[in-house]
Amino acid sequence: MLSEDLGFDPDELRARYRAERDRRIRPDGSAQYRDVTGEFGFYADDPHADPHFNREALHDEVDVVVIGGGLGGLLAAARLRQAGVGSIRVVEKGGDFGGTWYWNRYPGLHCDIESYVYMPLLDELGHVPAWKYAPGEDIRRHARAVGEHFDLYRDACFQTAVTGLSWDEDAARWIVSTDRGDRMRARYVVMSNGTLDRPKLPGIPGIDTFRGHTFHTSRWDYGYTGGDANGNLSGLADKRVALIGTGATAIQVVPHLGRDAQQLYVFQRTPSTVDYRANRPTDDEWAASLRPGWQRERMENFLGIVSGDETDEDLVADAWTGSARLLRKMTAGQDRGSLTPEERERAEELLDFRKMNQIRARVDEIVQDPETAELLKPWYRYACKRPTFSDEYLQTFNRPNVTLVDTADHGGVERVTENAIVVGDREYEVDCIIFATGFQVAMSDMITGRLPVHGRGGTHLLQHWSRGPRTLHGFYCNGFPNLFTMGAVQNAASVNFAHVLDEQASHIAAVVAEAGKRGARWVEPSEEAVDAWVSALGENAEELHRFYLECTPGYYNNEGKPHPRRGFAKGATAFHALLRDWRRNGMDDVMVMPG
Ligand code: NDP
User: Fold this and answer.
1) Pair (585, 565) in one structural domain
2) At what angle do helices 10-22 and 341-366 cross, to 10 degrees?
3) How far apart are alpha carbons 32 and 30 in whole angstroms?
4) Are 272 and 375 within one domain?
5) Which residues line ligand 1 (CB under 6 A)?
6) For position 311, what pLDDT does the model report?
7) Structure confidence at residue 589 (pLDDT)
8) How many whole angstroms separate alpha carbon 250 and alpha carbon 237?
9) Which of ligand 1's atoms lies nearest the C-alpha of 435?
10) So what family is this one in (predicted)?
């Protein structure tokens, strides 16, 4: 197709994307960030838990220890309970269930996926959320309700971090050690210890010299700002506030800071894509019409659409599904399977250009100052960064007390002094710095080695994985019996991660139930099964690698230096079908019977 027919020039856009990427790539890559330990440890402290909490150490035995009380851990425990497992102990660092929804309580916090498909176990609890996109507070309350409903509080250990796992071969039990001196024994361990739990700070020179107030968005300090998750931050009325970062968190926080702070400076390195939101209260009549099974049907429909499946029905009908359906429109009338990979890539790229043109046009429609509008336009492919949705963020830059400071040409904020932030030749004096700089993504304690796992013969899991993870379907590995991992390693992820976690939880529960029925001594895949799965994951790795190489830097592509990814390329719905099929035909392969 010629550029005149398209209304834009693909070559020009391609070149602009590349130039914008290049000016953001930093030679230090991921090393630009610093860990929140030592003198920076206060950024990760728990402001919600009782600092004087104490309890006796536990030296007992349970059927299952679940590490992590976020949505993944809760789902695993709930599905195991439904499968008839007796004693389930969730061990959680925070003071309650909720995971990311426990830590994050910043003003404006909402889930950006529709609540009816995101909030788990709605059918089971007979609950319909009050909003299409739920406030974080409602999700945290729901997490607690799941804990109550499945009687998980009785055995849970909060404010407790697991410090080691080791397999006792003779007893066929895991020994679980914690930072409270526990030494519990468990037949099974499920690891669901998070992808977004450790806050990340940029290593900005002088950051430790700042004398004003400072905190990370995931540890919001309402004692300083006043107000609550609904806003009304009265403590900021006479404060000059700096917000660093413009990712999915900042998009939700900025409207509140803009409304309530005397002066707000937003320090941006890369603008997010900001699509429309259109949140609305739940329609009572619709809620009353729902019949058992409604949530499963809706979740499957959403996952199918965002995974690119062919379907005419769009139950969620929002900006997520709208973008995904646009692609099908472009190739409508063609059998997508008959396109060559190059033709498909080209069609997808054109769609992407069109989508991003819409996103950029929206900035011009909303932001009055043309210079600010220009800075707020994202120049990269839609899937390079987490898309965001807001009907208030861009509008905030029309306020006279809000200033956008672009830092792209300086690799980010350059320097912090005792009372100011420095970018280029300007110094911005502020009373408070808030870091919306994200998390150490997918760096669970197991992956970093903070939680050592010793399997059969004392083998360390990270040693076993020294040339990359080795699992069957992402769940279990040879030499580490009765250990299940949840998350995004070697399986299929999707934007509705709660749904993905539910499928994983149901799968684990089905395997544990079957092992119980058969009296299996343990569950463990053969090395051959693992080999076969790891090789199968290589498919399409090249194509994905090329895509991320062209992306603007961020955590999706290891700050512009993408690792070759080996994930399940056919998408989440195909992966779930594969698991269902495996449960019917493949279980024998992992069950080790008493002999
Ligand atoms: P992100 O990692 O997405 O964003 C961090 C921001 O900090 C980026 O804008 C980054 O810029 C900026 N930054 C980092 N270092 C510097 C620096 N030195 N100077 C200036 N800016 C800097 O974190 P978020 O907390 O926004 O989001 C994390 C993830 O959490 C999301 O991707 C999403 O998956 C999830 N989330 C989900 C929500 C939901 O509703 N489901 C809501 C909020 C978050 P740059 O892009 O240039 O690196």
Assistant:
1) yes
2) 80
3) 5
4) yes
5) 24, 111-113, 196, 202, 204, 244-250, 267, 269-270, 386, 407, 412-413, 436-439, 554-555
6) 84
7) 84
8) 19
9) 7
10) Belongs to the FAD-binding monooxygenase family.
Question: What's the confidence (pLDDT) of residue 595?
Answer: 56
Report how far residue 279's alpha carbon sits from residue 277's, in angstroms, rounded to the nearest whole number: 6
How far, in Å, is the centroid of ligand 1 from the Cα of 251?
Answer: 9
Q: What is the DSSP string of 463-475?
A: HHTTTS---BTTT
Question: Which of 246, 388, 406 to probe ligand 1 with, by most ligand atoms within 8 A of CB?
Answer: 246
Q: Write down the pLDDT at residue 497.
A: 95
Closest residue by Cα to atom 36, ligand 1, is: 248
Which residues sit opposite 166 in a β-bridge?
A: 175, 454
Domain count, the chain: 3
Together in a domain, 193 and 122: yes
H or E element in which residue 572 lies? helix 572-585
- H, E, C per residue of 502-542: HHHHHHHHHHHHHHHHHCCCEECCCHHHHHHHHHHCCCCHH
217 Cα nearest atom in ligand 1 = 25
419/271 same-domain check: yes
Closest ligand 1 atom to residue 554 Cα is 48
Quick one: tokens of 519? Answer: 């009296």
Under 8 Å between Cβ of 567 and 484: no
C-alpha span between 129 and 136 (Å, rounded): 12
For ligand 1, atom 35, the nearest C-alpha belongs to 248
Q: Which long-range contacts (CB under 8 A, 24 or more apart) does 369-376 make?
A: 369/397, 369/398, 372/397, 372/404, 375/268, 375/271, 375/404, 375/406, 376/268, 376/271, 376/274, 376/404
- What confidence score (pLDDT) does residue 337 get? 65
Within-domain flag for 26: yes
* Distance in angstroms (rounded) separating the CA atoms of residues 264 and 524: 55
Dihedral sign (CA 390, 394, 400, 406): positive
Residue nearest to atom 3 of ligand 1 (CA): 247
Residue ranges of the chain whose pLDDT lies below 70? 1-4, 327-337, 442-443, 565-566, 595
pLDDT in tens, 359-379: 999 999 999 999 999 999 999
Question: Does residue 132 sit in the same domain as residue 28?
Answer: no
Q: Relative to the CA of 24, which ligand 1 atom is closest?
A: 47
193 and 205 in one domain?
no
Closest-CA residue to 203 (of 385, 34, 416, 16): 34
* Joined tokens for residue 509: 């529960």
Residue tagged 């080209």 (tokens)? 346
The confidence score (pLDDT) of residue 96 equals 98
Separation of alpha carbons 95 and 161, rounded Å: 11
Q: What is the pLDDT of residue 442?
A: 66
Full residue range of the structural domain in which residue 426 is found: 10-37+201-277+343-437
Token digits for 173?
Answer: 């039990």
Burial of 293 (0-12, 13-18, 19+ CB in 10 A): exposed
Question: Model's pTM, two decimal places?
Answer: 0.95
Give the DSSP per-residue string, 427-462.
EEE-SEEEE---B-TT--HHHHTSS-EE-GGG-BHH
